[in-house]
Amino acid sequence: xxxxILSGIRPTxxxxxxxxxxxxxxxxxxxxxxxxCLFCIVDQHAxxxxxxxxxxxxxxxxxxxxxxxxxxxxxxxxxxxxxHVPYHTELAWYFNCITxxxxxxxxxxxxxxxxxxxxxxxxxxxxxxxxxxxxxxVYKATHVPVGEDQKQHVELTRDIAQAFNNYVGAPVFPHPxxxxxxxxxxxxSLRDGTKKMSKSDPSDYSxxxxxxxxxxxxxxxxxxxxxxxxxxxEIDGLQNRPEARNLLNLYAIFTSTSLxxxxxxxxxxxxxxxxxxxxxxxxxxxxxxxxxxxxxxADETSLLQYLKKGSDTANAVGSAHLKEVRQALNMV
Length: 332
Ligand code: AMP
Ligand code: TRP
What we know:
Rossmann fold, Tyrosyl-Transfer RNA Synthetase, 2 domains, about 50% helix, binds adenosine monophosphate, binds tryptophan
């Protein structure tokens, strides 16, 4: 069986360290392990929350630059914009017709984003997961690397694939697997270790943006919330200390060591001292990515050419699969 990865990020707000570690970096680690990789910038998903859809063009290009600067070769892989491939929304419509409303109302992302007044929530926000299922299944992707928060949506995608296969009585779609990497699955806010780092947090100090300059990265880490205790010598000592755990975990990731080893190495030290080391490690890792992103963003023509190349392939695969879907649905 051909193994195919599909994943995507919404071009909303500032792309941050959580997106990079939870999603892009884990994609990069899988590039050589599968037959084909497709990475989408899901601009139509960004439209489901109007307040996030500002600066869509700029944010879309920034995400494309982040993918490439992080190590995704746009020639060997396919990087493209969702709205450049009309088959996503076509397939999403067919999925809307076989997906019970009860399945969609159980999605925690919908419940969080819709808030208390569900009647006022937009239809697009409600059917968001059907479009995400279409993003994945339009390519018959087999693996979907995402952060922990997207697991429920990928599981729903499997249910939708099965519901469609049952409906047409043929195994048209595979059941894609979510791939969630343990230590980077949930990077927490720098201001509150119980909340995930998120584009929608009103405080810029809660997250490190991929385009932050070195001084800003250092400042954000210096101001990151911690507690008054020194660093414990073992992981057990991090219980009920979410901010401490998050920072030590980031250091472990950037220096390619284990959290256990970081605890051992910094046992008894104060966070003020540790934060300087963490800032250095973060700048060393993110600095070159930012420089490459800026270089790519300065040459928009080349960036658009990479996206065109990606959507040409995506359209060819999507068109063939949609032909099969329409036939399975007995359309003329
Ligand atoms: P979004 O910003 O919601 O479009 O997320 C894009 C990707 O980044 C998804 O795979 C998310 O699961 C992942 N992601 C977002 N925030 C975090 C975080 N704080 N930690 C780990 N992964 C994240
Ligand atoms: N829902 C994802 C998020 O909020 C973004 C997304 C849309 C996605 N379509 C996708 C992720 C397909 C993986 C595969 O992060």
